[in-house]
TrEMBL record:
Keywords: Signal. The keyword Signal applies. This is DUF4148 domain-containing protein. Residues 1-23 form the signal peptide.
Length: 97
């Protein structure tokens, strides 16, 4: 029984060490991208400059609409308070229902 246990333990150690022999570098260099390009540094800099000039601050797929209000702040607040008093708009925790 002692020989069988020793044989199985040696076989297990050999199997685990065989898995370690197939490992790659610890920095995951096998996943690194490799680029082979023949563009010059000046071409890349010129392209980057044109992209920066034509870049829009507007998010992709959306339209930013600006609106200039002519209403008076006090009039808007008074209209909102009146709408709450008359029950046209809810207020407080009941509005979450």
């Amino acid at each position: 029984m002692n020989k069988t246990a020793r044989f199985l333990s040696i076989a297990a150690v050999a199997a685990f060490s065989a898995f370690g022999a197939h490992a790659d570098e610890a920095d995951a260099s096998q996943f690194a991208l490799k680029f082979d390009t023949n563009r010059t540094r000046a071409e890349v800099a010129a392209e980057a400059a044109t992209v920066a000039q034509t870049r829009s601050l507007e998010p992709a797929g959306s339209r930013v609409v600006t609106y200039k209000s002519t209403a008076d702040r006090a009039a808007v607040r008074a209209a909102a308070a009146e709408a709450v008093r008359t029950g046209q708009i809810p207020s407080g925790e009941i509005s979450a229902l």
